[in-house]
Amino acid sequence: MAAGTGEASSRARLLRIHEAAAEVGLTPRSVRYYEEIGLLTPAARSEGDYRLYDDTDLERLRFIKGLRDDAGFSLAEIARLLEDEAARERGHAAFHATTDPAERARILRDRLVRYDHQIEMLRSKIDRLEAMVDEAEARRTRTIARLDELSASVR
Hints:
By secondary structure, this protein is mainly α. The chain folds into two domains: about 1-70, Multidrug-efflux Transporter Regulator, Chain: A, Domain 2; about 75-155, no CATH class. It has helices at about 1-10, 15-25, 30-35, 55-70, 75-95, 100-155; strands spanning about 15, 45, 50-55. The protein has a three-stranded antiparallel sheet with strand order 1-3-2. The termini are far apart.
């Protein structure tokens, strides 16, 4: 039974770069660039040295795309968020691998610092968006005033 399980996992769906890109709505060039700057590492390479992506890679690509397109994060901000998440995962494993209270406290303090960085980045993004909303509302108010002036002069 164990051999069957290993076989099933070794047959996990692997997609070439153009297939993976199409599935998540990106271009192969974008996927290659994300790899070049360290946002993504393909699950495997084929015998012909083609990049191969698994479901975990596709999830990560969707996450990157969502942060970039939907939330407006820069690739540098995305890299920082992904590194913070990777560090959290490493810290989680390290926390459970030790029983030393001092080491556990150090791990938790590191986690707090990373959460503080994430919160700071997210608040900064919110502040920028709120400023953009304020600017749009001011333009709207000026346009209404101009309409009112025009309406008054037509009467």
